[in-house]
């Protein structure tokens, strides 16, 4: 077994991207590499070939290794449904719903499953690069931990600690992590990386030397800020709006609801010159300037639809439609556009039926059976190809002959719906806009011209840039020597 684990002084210090970058570095060197994250928490999931769910970051890391994603790479995935509850996914399959306190108290029971997945990956590869979660310095969560030091100790995997200098306080965060850890946990940490430095690294040299002296950890380098990381799919944070150029022709407004899921569906559109994505936060109206309103997926469709109405966005949306604007709903957003959402079994809470937004003549019944699969096909109106995936609980049926299906899957299934005038549409297929022809067809419908960019190639270029920057900035041989 040869493995190394990247942990961080906090959330969002760059663990996921650095794991992906190292996967590509070592894959480029001819090694068989696999990513692994024992426990992840995210509503942005990817679907494996065998129909399982894993965190979106692990799918990107698998791409960096030039292999297909597997449920082995993320054996425990928590998908938050409220501030206190989450759906628990084990080896890609839903195993129930737990309160946060119940999971924290019982998570050690998942360790055998985690270790089995890890050892299987080790048997298939030259090197496994493990990503931690949050921070091991959260000592209140140490007992029963399977995400950070609990896993590292159980699997005897050496750890490299990552600190983020861009947010400030990197010396204190690395030194503080060293100070609060149990001595046996601390012994597993063999080195550190300082991430996201803007400017001259020599100015930080005395701080770097202090961290080495204080912690006794080997300094493995300072990684500069890498602009192209913004081209990579983000798992945990919603991207910031980017100012568009004067050439932009359409604005897509995206209302941000509390349980938004798979917000990376617009990543490919984000890179288009003639598109401006505007994310609408609570308290803000849907802008009258928007050409398209996009309703994203949701982990709690009924609760998010109720939130949508409390914000007054349903009134804004009705005005948008009266002005001739376009609306697109994906997954939970598609369900919201219909006439009714019926939850007879209380999948999302108490059994109930609520009215939808009434923009498509479809009705949805939520069901316990979860549809998880990769899918491909074409849109019926223009035969443009797509390739994506489905993750949803529920069946949506068209309730009037005037509403046509939107897509035909290669297995013969019809999915989605589009209004007679073509202005309101929705479906269940995530990543619908990734393929160049499909994206161009929608932009043409909405009144913009596509740049014709290849989204997959764009991600590949960003991965190579991250890898080459890591090769030149970090002690890669030192990292490899730490792995065992």
UniProtKB/TrEMBL annotation:
Residues 4-236 form the CobQ/CobB/MinD/ParA nucleotide binding domain. GO terms for molecular function: ABC-type vitamin B12 transporter activity; catalytic activity. The lineage of its organism: Bacteria, Pseudomonadati, Pseudomonadota, Alphaproteobacteria, Acetobacterales. Residues 251-434 form the CobB/CobQ-like glutamine amidotransferase domain. The gene is cobQ. Pathway: Cofactor biosynthesis; adenosylcobalamin biosynthesis. PANTHER family: COBYRIC ACID SYNTHASE, DETHIOBIOTIN SYNTHETASE. Keywords: Cobalamin biosynthesis, Glutamine amidotransferase. One of its GO terms (biological process) is cobalamin biosynthetic process. This is Cobyric acid synthase. It comes from Gluconacetobacter entanii. The active site is at residues 331, 430. Pfam families: CbiA (PF01656), GATase_3 (PF07685). Belongs to the CobB/CobQ family. CobQ subfamily. Catalyzes amidations at positions B, D, E, and G on adenosylcobyrinic A,C-diamide. NH(2) groups are provided by glutamine, and one molecule of ATP is hydrogenolyzed for each amidation.
């Amino acid at each position: 077994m040869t493995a190394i684990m990247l942990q961080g002084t906090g959330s969002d210090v760059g663990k996921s991207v650095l794991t992906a970058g190292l996967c590509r570095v070592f894959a480029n060197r001819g090694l068989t590499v696999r990513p692994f994250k024992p426990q992840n928490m995210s509503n942005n999931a990817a679907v494996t070939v065998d129909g399982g769910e894993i965190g979106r970051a692990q799918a990107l890391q698998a791409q960096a290794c030039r292999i297909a994603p597997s449920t082995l790479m993320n054996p425990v995935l928590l998908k938050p449904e409220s501030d206190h509850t989450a759906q628990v996914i084990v080896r890609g399959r839903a195993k129930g719903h737990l309160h946060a306190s119940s999971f924290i108290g019982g998570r050690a029971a998942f360790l055998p499953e985690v270790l089995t997945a890890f050892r299987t990956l080790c048997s298939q590869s030259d090197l496994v690069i493990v990503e931690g979660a949050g921070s091991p310095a959260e000592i209140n969560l140490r007992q029963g931990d399977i995400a950070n030091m609990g896993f590292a100790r159980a699997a005897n995997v050496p750890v490299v600690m990552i600190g983020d200098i861009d947010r400030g306080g990197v010396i204190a965060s690395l030194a503080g992590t060293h100070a609060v850890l149990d001595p046996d946990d601390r012994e597993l940490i063999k080195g550190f990386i300082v991430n996201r430095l803007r400017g001259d690294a020599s100015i930080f040299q005395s701080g770097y030397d202090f961290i080495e002296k204080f912690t006794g950890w080997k300094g493995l380098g300072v990684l500069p800020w890498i602009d192209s990381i913004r081209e990579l799919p983000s798992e945990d944070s919603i991207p910031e709006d980017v100012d568009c150029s004067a050439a932009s022709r359409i604005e897509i407004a995206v209302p941000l609801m509390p349980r938004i899921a798979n917000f990376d569906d617009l990543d490919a559109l984000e890179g288009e010159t003639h598109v401006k994505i505007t994310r609408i936060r609570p308290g803000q109206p849907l802008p009258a300037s928007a050409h398209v309103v996009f309703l994203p997926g949701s982990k709690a469709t009924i609760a998010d639809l109720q939130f949508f109405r409390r914000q007054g966005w349903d009134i804004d949306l009705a005005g948008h439609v009266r002005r001739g604007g376009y609306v697109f709903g994906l997954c939970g957003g598609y369900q919201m556009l219909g006439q009714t959402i019926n939850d007879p079994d209380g999948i999302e809470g108490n059994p109930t039926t609520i009215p939808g937004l009434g923009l498509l003549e479809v009705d949805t019944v939520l069901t316990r059976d979860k549809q998880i699969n990769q899918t491909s096909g074409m849109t019926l109106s223009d035969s443009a190809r797509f390739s994506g995936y489905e993750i949803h609980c529920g069946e949506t049926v068209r309730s009037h002959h005037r509403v046509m299906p939107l897509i035909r899957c290669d297995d013969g299934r019809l999915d989605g719906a589009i209004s007679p005038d073509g202005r309101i549409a929705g479906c269940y297929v995530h990543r619908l806009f990734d393929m160049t022809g499909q994206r161009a067809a929608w932009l043409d419908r909405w009144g913009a011209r596509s740049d014709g960019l290849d989204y997959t190639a764009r991600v590949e270029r960003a991965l190579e840039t991250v890898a080459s920057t890591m090769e030149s900035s970090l002690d890669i041989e030192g990292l490899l020597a730490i792995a065992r």
